[in-house]
Amino acid sequence: MMLKLILEQVSQLMFQPVLALLVALVIWTLVALGMFLRSFVGRRRGRRPAVGRFAQLIDEAAGDAMNLPAGAGAGPAAEAGAAPDLDLRIEKLLAQAEHDSLRSLNSVRFAVRAGPSLGLMGTLIPMAAGLSGLARGDLPALAEHMVVAFSATIVGIAIGVVAHVIAMVREGWLRQDLDDIRLHAERVLRRYEAAAAKQPASPAAVAREGA
């Protein structure tokens, strides 16, 4: 009996925090929906900030590599790691782009799961109190608790649906952005390799090849 009372008290203590979190999640969902619509309009107009930012970083990395003196990649300094490796720098930038994409989706994916879960908790807690009122014959209390219970369910499911739609569309955008960034990186690497092939070898490199 004591354990049942403890569980009942714990569930009742959780009711107000659950409702507060549900309201906070509603506000967050509205803000996320506004940002999503702004991104949608921007992409329709051709604005893709992530692609432009990482394309610029890749171009800068390639520019730094192309500005090295001829044959700098074949001497002892390169073996010691002094000369930058363009392949590794671009791989690092691609990994950073993928990491940023996944991190931007984490909050939306959290809302997909948290919304219905909080809605279910907000349903079951007052429903238990409503059943207790029904046992006492207090029908007005039962009706009041049922209104809160079903309202929490509706709000939680709505949050989950909206967040799920946002997550699906944004995931498609991010995949497209990553594909375009990888394509740009491949083009830059090919240009760099073609330019490096046209550069004359340094005297030191020629002497080593002759030896």
Automatic annotation (TrEMBL):
It comes from the Bacteria. It is a multi-pass membrane protein. GO terms for cellular component: plasma membrane. The keyword Cell membrane applies. It is found in: Cell membrane; Membrane. The chain crosses the membrane at residues 20-41, 110-135, 147-169. InterPro entries: ExbB/TolQ_transport, MotA_ExbB_proton_chnl. Keywords: Cell membrane, Membrane, Protein transport, Transmembrane, Transmembrane helix, Transport. Residues 88-169 form the MotA/TolQ/ExbB proton channel domain. One of its GO terms (biological process) is protein import. Belongs to the exbB/tolQ family. This is Outer membrane transport energization protein ExbB.
